[in-house]
C-alpha cells in the first residue's frame, strides 16, 4: 500500500509538470494591435508536440546537429521568451507584404548577440536588418517585420493600442496547429492552418474533396499558371495587389494562363572608338519571361475598356500597363477584354465555371532569381504547386511540396 501511495505521489507532480509544460496555454493575445486587420496564430506547444512526434520516428536526426551547435547560440537559447501562441499580424493601410510579430525578451543583450551571430546588420536605434527581415529591440521586447516602416515609434508606443482590445486565442483558433484570420470591426473570419507530411493547408471547410477533381485536372496540363475567377474573387485579389477593381467595371469573370520561357535579351549601349566616334555596342543576356493570355469576361466590354482607360491601365500603344510583364497587346470584342503577350501568347484553358488559381513550380522561376540565397532556392525548388479554390463560402489554399525522406516539419 505504501508503495502505491509513493508511486501516486510521484506520478501526480510529474503529470502536473507535463500538463503545464506541454498542454496549458495562456490564450491572452497581448501583441495584436487594435489596428490589425489580419492575424496569423501558431499554437507553439502543438507545433512542438507535432515536431517531437515526427522526430521520434526518425532516430537518425536525434544527434545530427549536436556538434554543429556547440559554439553557436540556438534560437531557443537566444534570450527570447517563447510564447504559447505566436502572433503575426498585418496593419491596416499598409502593403500586403508588410507583416509583423512581437516577442518578450528574457535577456535583451543575449538576443542582440544572437542577431549579430546570424549576420543581421546593426542599423542603430535598436534596429537590425538582414535582407527583408527587420528586428527592433528594446525595453524587454522585440518586433520582427518584413518592413521597418512601422518602427518609427518606440516599442511601447507600437503596442499602446493593443490593451484596448482584449483578444483571446479562442476567438481565432480551435484545435488546429494555426489559423489565419481577417478582422473587420467586430467581425472575425477564421481559416485553419494544418501542417501535413508534404503539404500545408489553409481552409475554412472540411469539404476539401470538392477541389480534388479540379486539382487533378490542372495537374494534367503543363501551364505554369492557370486561373479562373468570378467578379468577387477578382475584387479580392485586386485589393491585395493594389489594383482595386470596382463593380462599375462590368467585369463578371476572368480566365488566365501563363508559361515561363528563357529568352535572349539584347542590351544596347553606346561608347566611343579611338577617334571619338559614337559606336553602338550590343550585349546579350538570358532572362526569364512569361508567355500569357488573360481574358476578362464582361457584361459590357465597352464599359470595361473605358474603366481600364480611366484607371490609366491602357496606354496609347494599346498595352495593358497594370501588369508588369511587357510588351503585350490589349483588345476587346463583344464578350471580353483580352491581354496577350506579344511574343507567343498561350491558349486559355476551357472554362470550368470554378474559382481557382493554380501555380506549378518551374525551375526557371527560382534559377532566375539571383537575389535568393541557395537555401531559399532550395526551399522554393521543393514546392510542387500552390492551389487556391473557392466554391460558395468554402475557401481552400494548398501548398504541396515534393515527397521526401522526411516530413515537412523536419526538413531544413
Summing up helix and strand content along with how strands pair, one would put the structural category as: alpha+beta
Mean pLDDT: 82
- Strand count: 21
The coarse silhouette is globular
Number of helices: 9
Separation of the first and last Cα atoms = 51 Å
What would you report as the Rg, rounded to the nearest angstrom? 26 Å
**β-sheet strand percentage:** 35-45%
> H/E series, N to C?
HEEHEEEHEEEEHEEEEHEHEEHEEEHHEE
| Main sheet specs | 19 strands, antiparallel
Unreliable runs? 14-21
> What percent of residues adopt helix (DSSP H or I)?
10-25%
Fold and architecture overview:
By secondary structure, this protein is an alpha+beta fold. It is 22% helix and 36% strand. It contains nine helices and 21 strands. It has a 19-stranded antiparallel sheet that branches. The radius of gyration is 26 Å and the shape is globular. About 2% of the residues have low confidence.
Core attributes:
412 residues; alpha+beta; two-stranded antiparallel sheet; 9 helices; 21 strands
What's this, in brief?
The protein has nine helices and 21 strands. It has 412 residues and is α+β, with helices and mostly antiparallel strands.
Topology (elements, then pairings):
Elements lengths: L1 H22 L4 E2 L6 E8 H13 L23 E2 L3 E7 L8 E6 L2 H10 L3 E4 L2 E4 L2 E6 L2 E5 L9 H4 L8 E2 L9 E7 L2 E9 L3 E5 L8 H9 L4 E6 H10 L10 E22 L5 E21 L2 H10 L17 E5 L3 E6 L13 E6 L2 H5 L6 H8 L1 E9 L2 E8 L11
Antiparallel strand pairs: 1-10, 2-4, 2-11, 3-5, 4-5, 5-9, 6-7, 7-8, 8-9, 11-12, 12-13, 13-21, 14-15, 14-19, 15-16, 16-18, 17-18, 19-20, 20-21
Amino acid at each position: 500500500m505504501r508503495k502505491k501511495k509513493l508511486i501516486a505521489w510521484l506520478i501526480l507532480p510529474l503529470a502536473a509538470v507535463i500538463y503545464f509544460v506541454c498542454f496549458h496555454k495562456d490564450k491572452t493575445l497581448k501583441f495584436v494591435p487594435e489596428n490589425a486587420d489580419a492575424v496569423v496564430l501558431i499554437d507553439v506547444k502543438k507545433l512542438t508536440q507535432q515536431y517531437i512526434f515526427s522526430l521520434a520516428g526518425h532516430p537518425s536526426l536525434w544527434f545530427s546537429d549536436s556538434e554543429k551547435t556547440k559554439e553557436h547560440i540556438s534560437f531557443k537559447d537566444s534570450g527570447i521568451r517563447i510564447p504559447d501562441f505566436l502572433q503575426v499580424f498585418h496593419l491596416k493601410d499598409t502593403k500586403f507584404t508588410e507583416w509583423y510579430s512581437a516577442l518578450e525578451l528574457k535577456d535583451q543583450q543575449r538576443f542582440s548577440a544572437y542577431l549579430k551571430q546570424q549576420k543581421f546588420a546593426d542599423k542603430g536605434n535598436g534596429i537590425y536588418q538582414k535582407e527583408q527581415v527587420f528586428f527592433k529591440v528594446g525595453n524587454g521586447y522585440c518586433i520582427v517585420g518584413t518592413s521597418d516602416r512601422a518602427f518609427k515609434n518606440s516599442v511601447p508606443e507600437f503596442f499602446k493600442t493593443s490593451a484596448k482590445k482584449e483578444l483571446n486565442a479562442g476567438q481565432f483558433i480551435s484545435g488546429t496547429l494555426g489559423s489565419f484570420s481577417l478582422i473587420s470591426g467586430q467581425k472575425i473570419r477564421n481559416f485553419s492552418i494544418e501542417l501535413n507530411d508534404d503539404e500545408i493547408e489553409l481552409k475554412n471547410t472540411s469539404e476539401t474533396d470538392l477541389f480534388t477533381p479540379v486539382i487533378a485536372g490542372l495537374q494534367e496540363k503543363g501551364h505554369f499558371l492557370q486561373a479562373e475567377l468570378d467578379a468577387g474573387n477578382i475584387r479580392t485579389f485586386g485589393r491585395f495587389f493594389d489594383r482595386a477593381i470596382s463593380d462599375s467595371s462590368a467585369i463578371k469573370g476572368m480566365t488566365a494562363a501563363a508559361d515561363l520561357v528563357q529568352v535572349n535579351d539584347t542590351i544596347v549601349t553606346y561608347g566611343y572608338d579611338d577617334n571619338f566616334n559614337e559606336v553602338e555596342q550590343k550585349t546579350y543576356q538570358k532572362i526569364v519571361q512569361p508567355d500569357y493570355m488573360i481574358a476578362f469576361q464582361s457584361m459590357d466590354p465597352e464599359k470595361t475598356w473605358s474603366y481600364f482607360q480611366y484607371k490609366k491601365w491602357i496606354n496609347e500603344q494599346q498595352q495593358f500597363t497594370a501588369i508588369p510583364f511587357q510588351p503585350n497587346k490589349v483588345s476587346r470584342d463583344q464578350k471580353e477584354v483580352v491581354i496577350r503577350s506579344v511574343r507567343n501568347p498561350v491558349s486559355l484553358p476551357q472554362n470550368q465555371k470554378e474559382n481557382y488559381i493554380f501555380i506549378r513550380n518551374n525551375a526557371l522561376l527560382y534559377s532566375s532569381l539571383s537575389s535568393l540565397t541557395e537555401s531559399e532556392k532550395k526551399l522554393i525548388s521543393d514546392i510542387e504547386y500552390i492551389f487556391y479554390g473557392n466554391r460558395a463560402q468554402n475557401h481552400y489554399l494548398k501548398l504541396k511540396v515534393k515527397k521526401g525522406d522526411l516530413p515537412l516539419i523536419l526538413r531544413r
